[in-house]
Design a protein that fits this description.
The complex is a heterotrimer of chains A (about 300), B (about 300) and C (about 350). In chain A, about 75% of the residues lie in helices and about 0% in strands. Chain A is an all-alpha fold and about 300 residues long. Chain A folds into 2 domains: about 1-75; about 85-300, MetI-like fold. The longest helix of chain A has about 50 residues, at about 10-60. Chain A is flat and about 65 Å long. In chain B, α8 (about 170-180) crosses α10 (about 195-225). Chain B contains 13 helices and 2 strands. Chain B is an all-alpha fold and about 300 residues long. Chain B has helices at about 1-35, 55-60, 65-95, 100-115, 120-125, 135-140, 155-165, 170-180, 185-190, 195-225, 230-235, 245-255, 260-290, and strands at about 40, 50. Chain B has a two-stranded antiparallel sheet with strand order 1-2. Chain B has a single domain (about 50-290), classed as MetI-like (MetI-like fold), CATH 1.10.3720.10. In chain C, the strands form 4 sheets. Chain C has a 6-stranded mixed beta sheet, with helices on both faces. Chain C has a 5-stranded antiparallel beta sheet with strand order 13-12-11-14-20. A 5-stranded antiparallel beta sheet of chain C has the order 15-19-16-17-18, with no helix packed on it. In chain C, α2 crosses α3 (about 105-120) and α2 runs parallel beside α4. The longest helix of chain C has 18 residues, at about 165-185. Chain C is elongated, with a radius of gyration of 24 Å. The chains are: A mainly alpha (about 300), B mainly alpha (about 300), C alpha+beta (about 350). Chains A and B meet through α2, α5, α6, α7 and α11 of A and α1, α3, α4, α5 and α6 of B.
Chain lengths: ~300, ~300, ~350
Amino acid sequence: MVETTLHNPDAISTAEEARAIRLTRARRRSRNNIFRHIFLIICSLIMIYPLLWMVSASLKPDNEIFGTLWLWPSEFQWNNYVEGWDALVVSFSRFYMNSIIITVLSVIGNVISCSFAAYAFARLEFNGRNIWFSLMMMTLMLPYHIVLIPQYLLFLQLGWIDTYLPLVVPKFLATDAFFIFLMVQFFRQLPRELDEAAMMDGCSPFKIYWAIIMPLSIPAMATAAIFSFIWTWQDFLGPLIYLNDVKDYTVPLALRMFLSQDSVSLYGEMFAMSVLSIVPIFLFFVIFQRLIVQGIAMSGLK
Amino acid sequence: MRKFLAKNAPGYLFLSPWLLGFFFLAIGPIVTSFYLSFTKYDIATPPRFIGIEHYEYMFVWDARFWQSLKVTFAYVFMSVPGTLIFALAVAMLLDRQIRAIGTYRALFYLPSILGGSIAVAILWRQLFSNAGVINSIVELVGFEGPYWLSDPDYSLYTLVILAVWQFGSPMLIFLAGLRAIPQELYEAAEIDAAGPFRKFFAITLPMLAPVVFFNLVLQMIEAFKTFNSAFIISDGRGNPLDSLLFFTLYLYNEAFSFFRMGYASALAWVLLAIIGFFTAIAFATSKYWVHYENERG
Amino acid sequence: MAGVSLKSVNKKYGTVEAIHSIDLEVNDGEFLVLVGPSGCGKSTLLRMIAGLEEITDGTISIEDRVVNDVPASQRNLSMVFQSYALYPHMSVRKNLAFGLSNMKMPKPEIERRVADAARILQIGELMERKPRQLSGGQKQRVAIGRAIVREPQLFLFDEPLSNLDAELRVQMRVELAGLYNRLGTTMIYVTHDQVEAMTMATRIAVLSNGHLEQLGTPFELYNFPQNRFVASFIGSPKMNMLEAEAKGGAVELADFGSLPLGDGVSDGSLAVGVRPSQFLVGDEGDVHASGKITLVEYLGSEMFIHVQLASGRVMMVQAPGHSVYKLGDEIRLGISRRAAHYFDSAGLRVPLFDKQDS
């Protein structure tokens, strides 16, 4: 076969042609790639420009904030951060403390309660499991607004308004079906023979959960914890409804107070505090990017 | 009996937190909400049963209800397709062996993860203010910028743009879907001399149909539930002139500004019906345009 | 050490019966192999003995103790899983010790047992590794080690060699046999590979469709299969089956002609089974037929010849490796009536010449 192609003039020309085609194609591809990169870079800049603008506005003197596209401040107003921290009736130290308490408790609650439920759904056998599971899946679709008012009335009855309980207790009751779903998916891909081996090694269901399933599910737990953190940190509607005392406010509620201030001269401070409020999320994003991306691809979490 | 207990006890023990939540924070409230929607209830006095009066008032007399529907639908029908088209286009650009893909992906996704925050809503208000960045750009091109936030004809676009800006999460799902398309299909198409358009319509889109479907349903539900940004940008009331009176915002104000709990519950049920209706349509039509591989039967 | 006794054990999934009332006595110190095609219920049966699967009906006892309601961990047995099921997040040492520490065994005793198992299986230098750092054979050893440390009365193996490549499988087979000789503990071993079954077993139980087809030594199964299923399942290549009619003490075979069998045979349909190795070439034998060679599979020490007879039927014949058969050759085959197997219309063995043979 090789010999015939070598001695056949037609074959040589086709081989050369093929090489030529391959070359032009490679050239076209690399040119395409350059265009693609240029395009993607422009898109990225447009995408993050608003965020850069916010950072820049937080460092500009008030009179430079509007009317210009230029991002670099004439002089850096670091003072915006110092003054912004105490610009409201209550210090941001307090708001951050409140947000941290609620967020940490919510993350813990979500991870424990959702992993419990997921373990039961994915690994244990009991009567009615399939019915409960489909009911759980239905709550995935349920808009929060339908339960909002009765939940409010329930917590009102319990005297929980103006406490953190309405924001935290539901997290300990596995109300975030998304996380259960995510964990069930993850648990199901762990080989069942592991549970059986552990059962033969004398493990109770709880021991299997604790000593086998949980250590092997760290990525899923981390993903749930990260999203739980991001959502709780940014939650606005819950605190808006349940917290009325400024001393109890979370960071998002506090930020809103900048808008209702009568004076308009607090722009720099407002942007400074806005930037600070998203720093924790930004850091989480940078550190845990891989887990976040996987988590979204896996389950369509927002 | 002992056997029954031994078999079921562990499962129900592990499920107990969820069961409590399910009964007290999901099913219980759903039933209560349904009942409340047929009553007049202001918290101070006990609920009074009034039958379907709320629903009647809503559909026949309540202009703000219709306005809120109009706003919400306009928003959903502009933002969802916009978001999905951007998401798919960028995902396809990124679905090649190109350098720095991780960086691009992160940059495109960043707005999604921050987008729900109050900080970004506040930022958006300022970007679209009269002397804000957007108008500076518009003037740079040579036009006169509109009053985005105070002109009812323009205000909704600020929120649509905010939604489209957050195309990152459907983009990630599209990317995962594109990765799952076997490369051999494209190679086979190449041998069959298919051009890029043909490849897109004959391979990419059909193979991606389940993912498109998934994203569509997810984005639609999310869009109907939009609240935070609408609240901040419209001063919490749907300003200007109710042009940003999102359904959720109307519901919130009825319940927690005016304490019309019964009426707000009725609104919640309408929202549920709308979301249910569109999800059902998506599912019902899906069999005509979504083909799953390895389909059984 | 302990014997295992199954009495009318039955398993239903909903209305589907996976195991049909099986009775089985496993003797103390025996190596019993459960063999059968996939889906025959052999793994289910093993898992029921292990306590991982509930039994619908009947009783299972281990050393005269009914264990129907005894949890798996208290049945005093160990199981080696097909996928090994090593805990991925624990070192080899922890994997071995995990079950023992769950039993609240004193530390020095755990260490002694783990060290013993490591010595027996020669995995001493792997003790601090994680399972993902082990090769297939090493994982297999650790899995066996995890079973050994518990010093159980009974070992259960669920297709433990099926994830290994062919060479390693042969090696592990030898090691397992050695381990059995050394420990002398009762072992129940599930496999679909009849070579494994024949080489390792004291006795073999052949299962099909949830029925116990035959229980016996490898010798009994090969030489006296009790029914057609066992006859064709045990032995490779498969036994040739000639469908025929018996009449007046003789059976009329197509191609071969009439084979007299004596008075012991009643009239009616009768299948005659001849193993490939039992065909005679040339003029030996009681009846003869000629055919044409359509395929020769040369294996070195032996060869398998496909012979097409006049009726079109193809017989599989085993011949020594040094033979010179070629494609297209004519060949004359003979059957000796004493070397053949006979099955009645129900598929059961007709014991015509068994007494004289044994």
